[in-house]
Amino acid sequence: IYAKLFSAGPTQFARTAGMRLPNGEYDVAGATEFLHRLDQLYPGINRYAREIERTALQNLASSGEAFIRSPRTNRKYVADRNKLYPLLNHSIQGEAGEILKLKIVQMDAAGLGPYMTLPVHDEINLDVPNEDVKDVLHTLRNTLNDGTLLSVPLTWSVATGHRWGSLTEV
């Protein structure tokens, strides 16, 4: 989907997705069909991308700089010269990072601060004594899962274990 969001055509999409025909050539027809079906199933993707571009172009016309702002924090994301498509990534990744930080603050306010050890990309690692795991899991679910923050429910998965490489989703 990222290839689509970054305006990849069917050939680039097939290459990125590893879509090949039995003879080894890229399956451009299959990629075209997939992209068409994606547009039908999720028309909001194109609407969102066009809205980002429209906003950036309006800002370029009024201020001389193509940019968008985060709806959550008002942070300004500026486009590289003649490249508006990265603004879509800034919007998606930037908001995801903002939400992660917001949830970290909410976890601390819910009393989980002493257990939090490290945020890693889109994860929050905690070190919890065995006797507290059940209560912490309950608090995590109540804090992280959120039906009001976005237009779709925000859900998080939780995994436990003694080592990062051997976690079990709960």
Topology of this protein?
Blueprint: H1 2-5, H2 10-17, H3 28-41, H4 43-63, E1 67-69, E2 76-78, H5 86-112, E3 116-120, E4 123-126, H6 133-144, E5 159-160, E6 168-169
Antiparallel strand pairs: 1-2, 3-4, 5-6
Helix pairs in contact: 2-3, 3-4, 5-6
Question: How would you describe this structure to a colleague?
Answer:
A two-stranded antiparallel sheet has the order 1-2. β3 (116-120) and β4 form a beta hairpin. With 170 residues, the chain is mostly helical. It has 6 helices and 6 strands. The chain has helices at residues 2-5, 10-17, 28-41, 43-63, 86-112, 133-144; strands at 67-69, 76-78, 116-120, 123-126, 159-160, 168-169. α5 crosses α6 (133-144).
Report the mean per-residue pLDDT as an integer.
91
In angstroms, what is the radius of gyration? 21 Å
Number of helices: 6
Roughly how much helix do the residues carry, as a percent range? 40-55%
Spatial strand sequence of the major β-sheet: 1-2
What's the total number of strands? Answer: 6
| Percentage of residues in strands | 5-15%
Taking the sheet with the most strands, its summary is: 2 strands, antiparallel
Q: What overall geometry do the principal axes of the alpha carbons give?
A: globular
Poorly predicted runs are none
**What is the H-and-E element order?**
HHHHEEHEEHEE
Q: What is the rounded distance between the termini?
A: 28 Å
Query: Structural class from helices and strands?
Result: mainly alpha
